[in-house]
Design brief:
Number of helices: 12
Radius of gyration: 20 Å
Shape: globular
Distance between the termini: 35 Å
CATH class: Alpha Beta
Oligomer: single chain
């Protein structure tokens, strides 16, 4: 298993990260692993060299954290745990967001469910425009000083949300986010417009979630292939829509590259994402043990530059303003957009 540095932190993480949204059963279209199956999946992941496990308090209303804690058992010193805070957990008025009280209480609850005394990466699950960043960062700093979290990161932030957070941390003299978890794949490349250059400029690592585009790149979809019943796509859990012909141009390219290397379509899609700038790791879930074992093979694939170019061309998306204008200027000056971001 390849390993990567997690941004400016001292953590070394596995390139593939086991996601646990399938633990607990709340997201049936993704999977519904009970403690027995979850333990087998964790065992397989550890044997393959996966060292980081990603969860969230909101997954199955805390059950995913609890199952993960039980599945890890006495192997806590062998793994890194990442979880998240910020999404609504109940109908209670204060049980959502990133206020100091909510963060402190949520962290304590996650620690109990995970059966651990610290969380390696504590992630803000979504930006909270109702709470000042000084309050949020102050709570995270308090948790770090108490040894309850090691590092913190964000998820689903826009570029200006993340840069404002970095600037506020510098002003307050507290630690800044070391990672961002983002939705990114061959069928959703908007991340490249602003968040990727920001991560490159500020040394913020990327943890990619849904690297198979909500199962659209699993190999089960393609030209002439019906949507599988009871799948994430059929359940409408695949994220924003995509023009059918555009999707097929991507799956056609994936199938061609996969046939050249004797790989699966999913493995090629994962390998492409793992090779992108700023990407430290991919959060991969598993409906079952067989699916996990198959996708683990992506860590060993090295795509050629020509294969990457073909996948890039098939999945290219027109940029929104002002990115198309910036790209035009970058081409005129013969500067790569990531390099231009460092001005």
């Amino acid at each position: 298993m390849i390993t990567r540095s997690l941004g400016s932190s001292g953590l070394e993480i596995s390139g593939l990260i086991l996601g646990t949204a399938t633990f607990g059963g709340a997201y049936a279209a993704w999977g519904a692993s009970d403690i027995a199956e979850a333990t087998r999946i964790v065992d397989i992941a550890l044997h393959a060299g996966i060292t980081m496990f990603d969860t969230a308090d909101v997954y199955s209303a805390g059950a995913a954290e609890e199952i993960l804690g039980r599945a890890i058992g006495d192997r806590r010193s062998d793994v890194l745990i990442a979880t998240k805070v910020g999404m609504r957990m109940s109908d209670s008025a204060g049980d959502a967001g990133l206020s100091r009280g909510r963060i402190i209480a949520s962290c304590e609850a996650s620690l109990r469910r995970l059966r651990t005394d610290h969380i390696d990466l504590y992630q803000l699950h979504a930006f909270d425009g109702c709470v000042g960043l000084d309050e949020t960062l102050g709570a995270l700093d308090e948790l770090q000083r108490a040894g309850k979290i090691r590092y913190h990161g964000v998820s689903n932030f826009s570029g200006w949300h993340l840069m404002k957070t970095v600037a506020a941390a510098e002003r307050l003299g507290v630690s800044a986010p070391v990672a961002q978890q983002a939705y990114y794949s061959l069928v959703a490349r908007e991340f490249e417009w602003e968040l990727m250059p920001l991560g490159d400029d500020q040394d913020i690592a990327t943890l990619v979630y849904s690297p198979l585009g909500g199962a659209r790149l699993s190999g089960k979809l393609g030209r002439g292939k019906p949507v599988p019943q009871e799948s994430r796509v059929a359940a409408g859990a695949a994220g924003p829509g995509l023009d059918e012909e555009k999707l097929y141009s991507i799956t056609d390219a994936l199938e061609a590259v996969a046939s050249e290397g004797g790989w699966t379509v999913a493995q090629v899609a994962l390998a492409w994402a793992l090779g992108r700038p700023t990407v430290a790791g991919l959060v991969i879930g598993a409906r079952n043990e067989d699916q996990l074992v198959a996708n683990l093979g992506a860590a060993d694939i090295r795509l050629s530059s020509e294969q990457v170019e073909r996948l890039d061309a098939a999945s290219a998306q027109p940029a929104a303003y002002p990115y198309w204008h910036q790209q035009m200027l970058s081409r005129e000056r013969n500067v790569h957009p990531l390099d231009a971001s460092r001005g």
